[in-house]
## 1
Amino acid sequence: MKRVCFLLGIALGITALIVLGIRASSAMQRVDGRSAAQWLAFVEEAGQTVSYHAVGKAWENNKSAQFILDQGRAGQYLLQTTDAQGKSCTMGYDGQRIWYANKLHTSKMVADTGPSAILVHLAGRIAGTCRYAGRPAIRLVAQNGNTRKEITADRQTGVILAMNTYFSRRRVSEMHVEQIAYRDVVVNPCSLHTDDAMTAITPAQARAVLGRNILHPTWLPAGMTLAKMYHAPCCCDTRGMVVLRYSDGVSTLTLSEMRDCNCAMCAGCYQANNGDAIVETRTIGNITVTAVGTLDVNAMRRILGSLQ
Amino acid sequence: MKQCPTINKLAEYQTEALANREQQAIHQHITNCTVCQRELQALESTVQLLATLPVPALPDNLWAGVAQHLPNNPRIAFRQRWWKALAGAGVAAGIAIGLLVMHAPNARLPIAPASASAYVADHALLSSQDTFADRASIGVMLALQRSEP
């Protein structure tokens, strides 16, 4: 008993020291004169400024597909995925609209999105350097709450060459570029015509939709901010619903608020089919709020509980 | 008791160190035995004489000398303590790990009903705007999205 305890204690101690040592050394590490935070900011900037054509593979919820990505300047892109069964999806951003359309005749467009991304200041660490898709690369780890991203980025351009996303310590998606060619890319405007587009709205317009003030969470995880507010059609009410999008750059949250709605799903907390999001519904007065977020259950419940 | 007790038994009787029954037996014997009465008186006078002797002062280096003959004792005491402390820490660590595993977020959540898929797809599409969004994987997910009935 004594020996087992002794050996267990020694093993735990050594493991803790190794982990702490690795984390401390990697947190202090600089590559090419940049710290982890500076690298992440560089990668963010590259997403808005570098133009390229890339081919690679993506994996999500045990399904994989090939992808072709044309990334233009100002964050515009056109992306096509095709899996082994021929199921495909085209999605893109033309500077004003984001959209997707698949072979199952499903499509959606979000109009008037404005600037593509929220620039955030993420905490992270440098995990090392390597070569990836024929390019010198740096490996970065960014984590907020339950979501962790392991990013491999081009050391010269900052373009993301590979990314593993973990939610609650479980890998939920993966993408890696196999070939990349830096060149000018022109992304044509979205030609999709759809009646159920989401459109950006003001708080006053949102009040008109709901017939009352929007329900805002009075508590949010650190770093999470309201990025945009949209109006979306609803199948049971011609007034539609108000959609609030929150993000901290790694974790995301969408609140859909509906008035006198009877199409919302049953109240409760669920795991989305793809496993990387939590879905929860709450009704306050005549407003039903459906939240979808890549946050842990406790955070989701606290957010919904703080709605006012 | 017919036979006289030994001198050691008498000494123990005199200091009341014997069990009750033996103490009474010797007491009865002494009341009828003059030899033992004399021996007892001699013992009592010796004890009284010893009590009059002065108590010698303890030498200053007494503990040092005793400690010299008790090697490693502090270590033995430490050994007896540390493994208990380590075992306690191990149990605490085990409980902590257990609690972490039990409270692993989203471990036992039911799968969302089909009616939630449109919300999840909208969330994914909106999330694709984030710089660190994995758009290719979002595309894999959206390829399977069906229109609402």
Note: Residues 116-147 of chain B form one domain.
## 2
Amino acid sequence: MKLSDLKNTRWTLDHPQLGTGPVPVDSYVSPEYFEHIRTLFANTWICTGKRVEEIPNAGDYFIENIEVTKASVIVVRGLDGVIRGFHNTCKHRGTQLLFDSYGSVKGRLTCIYHGWAYSLAGKNLLITEKEMFFDVERMEKDLLPVSVDVWAGFVFINQNPKPRERLKEHLGPQVLELYGDYPFETTTVHLSYKADLECSWPVLRDSQLDGYHLKYLHRRSAPGFMESAEAPNRHAYDFKLLGKHGSGSFYGNRARIGADLSKVAPVAALASKVGQTLASNTAARVDVSKWCKGVNPARAEDWFFDFLYLFPNFHIVFLGYQAYIGHKMMPGSRVDLSSWNAHYYAPPVKADDLEAAWAAEYMKYSLRDLWREDGNTTLGAQRSINSGAFTQMYLQDQEILIRHAEQVLAAEIEKTRNTEKA
Amino acid sequence: MTAINSLPTAFEALTPFLDWALPTETLRRRKRESSSMREIQDFYDATLARVAEIMDHLRKTGSLATADEPTRTLYTLMLAFADASLSVELHKSPIVPDGLPGDVWKPEHETAGWLQKPAIVMQPAKTGNA
């Protein structure tokens, strides 16, 4: 398919409930609204960005520190292979049980303070000097659980131990159907960058919700990748609203880029051939008709990337058949603070392939610099919002998912508040 | 004889650029971002002229774990070259124009916590306890 073959060039009009007027930025600045966002994040499924193969053995764990709810959560694989989550809090005096962001324990969690110990399933195993305590039978001795579930190898947590809906219900039938067959299990994390930013979480969220900015903001780091002579003002093959979530699929002339690059950017061209980079003609590597339904739904040869926004905090950017980015975007402790953690996932590099290892490092640095371009736009936008100079956004058709994300956020906050009241 | 920080004999001509062969991504990025375009271009030009032979050498080497010290140094130099190439080929600048300062955008994969990560074992997805 070509971009000019598209009949639908005004996606927003297919969804009259979204409207076409300016979008106010109250959620980007209001401390009152931020308290609702805080409650929402304490009661919804959050993608950690971490994958099951990162904690493969019993006792392997990682810690999630969630600034917006102030929680520290241990996610650990049990002796039975099941991954569980607990507040990182000893029931005796509240001391943190673990301190490292990743690690492995031998069969139990032991508090450094007075030696209390817990099983990997959260059951209290040991109270030291037990006979000196009072009413031991009536003490709450087990770790406070956090809900954990897995989709596509990604670990999700919900701080509510009795969530309003299961993870599969949260994701919804369309996401499961469209993306269930993507070969996630052949990939793992290659890199992780983090930044704590002085911008609100919605500003950060929106920074990866349009494909319109690439041609402009990334004109240096992705030169000409989205320039289409036949449809100069269009970039998207498709947009879908998927319940709370949303997806977009975007044009790119990677096939021609390869040839152009070898003259002006020989190292970029070399890395794109030896490994998989932004410039690799990925649609030519695995027959596009064999891809999962959701990715490159137009089955276009001239394809650059798709994104899938998983409400509320995770954007997957598909760059190929077995290559994708995961942006974990979290609110911070205040309305005008947030954190961005960007990952890239692909099949593991073989230990005896030094050429491929070099190309993977090239990809790492090029993504790093590309994301630094994105990061800077958010800080400036937040300053404009905070100063009162900017109160509403005019969004074009290809920014449809920003409209949708704001409506979903408001609706989910409402649902969470109603559940709390009930 | 092989002193520390020497290159394989075939690539000794690149010895003047060994100050780029720094051990971490952060140090190499800082080196790039504090160099002039002239310095970056000189390193880029000299290495690009030999890149086919270097890649050949890396291909034959196979695993970094068993590579000799000069080859490991050459590989580190090639990582700096990858970083420097972004300045020459894409940014036309030592830094990322209009980008976040490099030290704000932190590589978690270089932290002590990340280095303690359990070894990855590929496996099919499994459901948790929810």
Note: Chain B touches chain A through 57 residues (CB under 8 Å).
